[in-house]
């Protein structure tokens, strides 16, 4: 195997660019022959954590379940890209503790930018009182205090953010033997 298992945990507000960045990273890594799985928060909520709500307890449980799956994949040599808001530091810290091989990426964009990017209109609905406990509106988001990587997606293109993440993962020794990656853009 060319690489070691690791979980790259992308956290940030809805609309910050976590999914876009994880898709770019997955594309680059797969083109280099890496085994990659993406655990996207929206997809996970429809399957693995279906039935959980948005209370603090349910959000912590959501992260716990994602972390467990990421742990299993990571220990079996897979590069796991988790793209989930995961709003609470304590839950992310517990995920790091469980997984071990863990790189926290803060996908940082100002709330105003995230609201402008909101194609589903969820922020607007939350501000109108139609959605309760919406992260960033009436429920807190606790940004990482010391993320391994910070991507400012309102200032960087997805390529720049992806290269920052890959440089960190490579520096930590997870990509030994993997050739430099290619552009996120499809040929």
Helices and strands, with pairings:
Blueprint: E1 6-11, H1 18-31, E2 36-40, H2 41-46, H3 56-75, E3 79-83, H4 89-99, E4 102-108, H5 111-117, H6 122-127, E5 149-152, H7 158-171
Parallel strand pairs: 1-3, 1-4, 2-3, 4-5
Helix pairs in contact: 1-7, 3-4
User: Would you count the extended β strands for me?
Assistant: 5
- Give, in spatial order, the strands making up the sheet with the most strands: 2-3-1-4-5
Distance between the termini: 26 Å
β-strand percent reads 5-15%
Secondary structural class: alpha/beta
Order of helices and strands: EHEHHEHEHHEH
Strand count, sense and barrel status of the largest sheet are: 5 strands, parallel
As a whole number of angstroms, the C-alpha radius of gyration is: 16 Å
- The overall pLDDT, averaged over residues, is 92
Number of helices: 7
Morphology: globular
Helix content: 40-55%
Unreliably modeled segments? none
């Amino acid at each position: 195997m060319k690489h070691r298992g690791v979980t790259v945990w992308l956290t940030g507000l809805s609309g910050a660019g976590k999914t876009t960045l994880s898709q770019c990273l997955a594309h680059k890594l797969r083109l280099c022959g890496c085994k990659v799985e993406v655990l996207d928060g929206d997809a996970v909520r429809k399957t693995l954590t279906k039935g959980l709500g948005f209370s603090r307890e349910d959000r912590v449980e959501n992260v716990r379940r994602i972390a467990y799956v990421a742990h299993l994949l990571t220990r079996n040599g897979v590069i796991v890209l988790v793209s989930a808001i995961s709003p609470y530091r304590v839950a992310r810290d517990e995920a790091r503790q469980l997984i071990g091989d863990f790189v926290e990426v803060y996908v940082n964009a100002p709330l105003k930018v995230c609201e402008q990017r909101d194609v589903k209109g969820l922020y607007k609905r939350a501000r109108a009182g139609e959605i309760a406990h919406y992260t960033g509106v009436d429920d807190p988001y606790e940004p990482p205090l010391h993320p391994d990587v910070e991507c400012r997606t309102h200032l960087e293109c997805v390529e720049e953010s992806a290269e920052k993440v890959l440089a960190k993962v490579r520096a930590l020794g997870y990509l030994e033997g993997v050739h430099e990656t290619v552009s996120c853009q499809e040929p």
